[in-house]
Each structure stands twice: as C-alpha cells, then as structure tokens.
Amino acid sequence: SSHLQKKRRAATARRQHLKSAMLQLAVTEIEKEAAAKEAEKQNYLAEHCPPLSLPGSMQELQELCKKLHAKIEAVDEERYDTEVKLQKTNKELEDLSQKLFDLKGKFKRPPLRRVRMSADAMLRALLGSKHKVCMDLRANLKQVKKEDTEKEKDLRDVGDWRKNIEEKSGMEGRKKMFEAGE
After folding, report:
1. Do residues 177 and 165 lie in contact, with contact meaning Cβ atoms separated by under 8 Å?
2. 119 near 135, Cβ under 8 Å?
3. Is 24:17 a contact under the CB 8 Å cutoff?
4. Name one GO cellular component term (predicted).
5. Which of 56, 96, 132, 173 is the most buried (most CB within 10 A)?
6. DSSP state of 132
7. What distance in Å separates the CA atoms of residue 75 and residue 58, rounded to the nearest whole number?
C-alpha cells in the first residue's frame, strides 16, 4: 500500500505543480495584456492629441480655444454614436437570450417508459456501491406451519355461521340444544 500512497502523492504533487504553472502563465498573460492596452492608449493619444503649445497673442489663443471646442464636440459625437451602438448590440443580445430561453422552454420531455426493476436493482441504482443489504422480500414473510392450516380447515368445516344461528333459533333450536346437552 505504501507504493500506492507514493503514487498518489506524486500525482497530487504533479497536479499542484501544473496548477501553479497555469496560474503563473495566466498572471504573465494578464500583465502582457495590460501593457499592450497601455501602449495602445499612448499611441492613440500621441496621434490624436499632439502636445499643446500655447501661443502668445490673445487672438491666437482664441483660435486655439475654438479648435479645441470643435475637437471636443467631434469626440463627444463619436462617443455618443459608440454608446448607441453598444446599447443596440446589448438589446439584440438580450432579445436573442430571451428567444433561446423560450425555445428551451418549448422542448417537450419524452414520456417516461415504465421499467420493471427489482428492489435490489433500484437500491443499487440509487446507492451505487454502498448497497450491500439484500432485499429478499420472501425472507420477511411469516412462515406458515402445517398445524395452522389444520385449524383453518376445521373452521371451514364448521360452515357458515349464519346457518348455525338459524338452526339454534326458535323453539326447535332450543329443543335440539337441550337434547344435545349444550
């Protein structure tokens, strides 16, 4: 059994090693992704937002302000359009999810077939390998002794109780009982 334990320990250690290696890989990938996003952001800003150089005269400053306002408006419009597109896409996704949900709801379950199964088979199916008890239903039945059947035969021979009562009722019945010495 010690060989088996060593094998199990080795498997567990290998699993742990693989898990930590995967986690390390994931962390590295996340860091790479974050760095790539940051680089993309810097490139975009360098392209679309050149460094600001403030002019000396009042008129040139006013011109610069007008340009900046125009740029801000353009960017705002772009942002608004993107938001609307996103909302539209999200709505479509929601609708599709709802359709999918509805379709799943319409799926008819097949009618279940009756299966003849012994109590043993049922317990085995429910409990699996834990099922050790044998459900022999006949074992729990009461044993009928031969004497019991003899008693029952005697009772049957007595006949119908109604007939006996009728025979013993009235004057004739009393006379018979007296003669019989009852």
Report:
1. no
2. yes
3. no
4. troponin complex
5. 173
6. -
7. 26
Tokens read off for 20: 């930590």
Tokens of 41: 């952001």
- Its pTM stands at 0.34
| Digit-coded pLDDT (tens) for 98-153 | 998 888 877 666 777 777 777 777 777 777 766 565 555 566 666 666 666 666 66
Q: What is d(CA 39, CA 31) in angstroms, rounded to the nearest whole number?
A: 12
Closest to 67 (Cα-Cα) out of 45, 81, 52? 52
User: What is the distance between the alpha carbons of residues 113 and 100, in angstroms, rounded to a whole number?
Assistant: 28
Cβ within 8 Å of residue 120, ≥6 positions away: 131, 134, 135
10 Å Cβ neighbour count for 155? 9
Structure tokens at 91: 């709505």
First to last CA, the chain: 84
